[in-house]
Design brief:
alpha+beta; 4-stranded mixed beta sheet; DCC1_Trx; DCC1-like
């Protein structure tokens, strides 16, 4: 099977600092090229061409599978992490207790992502080893 048939498309809000940082981490780890990233905040992006609303795309992370199916919210996060070699995180998100906690946490973060304080955003991304306490991120 051609590798291009295995590519999943990630639709993310590039205007959101938390989203942009998280997608930057995934982009840097996308060595196998299994993900294609689309910033839905770009002015020329057309949600209607996908058969979804912009409001739906802005509400939660969306991943379109090679067969056309959509993964939305935590399942989308799980797929993106699995595709970039973060298998432990992806596996953890399928554990019942963690999934039970992850869904409302994700929903809250998605709904409040523009109002999160800068210190919280920085703390959330120090775990990646990519971002310094001042918010600056290294590229590989």
């Amino acid at each position: 099977m051609n590798a291009s048939h295995l590519v999943q498309t990630v639709y993310y809000d590039g205007a959101c600092p938390l989203c942009r940082s998280e997608m930057g981490l995934l982009m840097r780890r996308n060595d196998a090229g299994l993900l294609h990233f689309i910033d839905i905040s770009e002015p020329d992006f057309d949600a209607a061409a996908l058969g979804v609303t912009m409001a739906a795309l802005m509400a939660r992370l969306h991943v379109r599978q090679p067969d056309g199916r959509w993964l939305i919210g935590v399942p989308a996060v799980q797929a993106a992490y699995a595709a970039t070699g973060h298998r432990r995180i992806a596996a953890a998100l399928s554990q019942p207790v963690i999934a039970w906690l992850a869904v409302p946490t994700y929903e809250w973060l998605a709904a409040h992502r523009y109002r999160l304080p800068r210190w919280l955003l920085q703390a959330a991304h120090l775990h990646t080893g990519q971002c310094a306490p001042d918010g600056a991120c290294r590229r590989h």
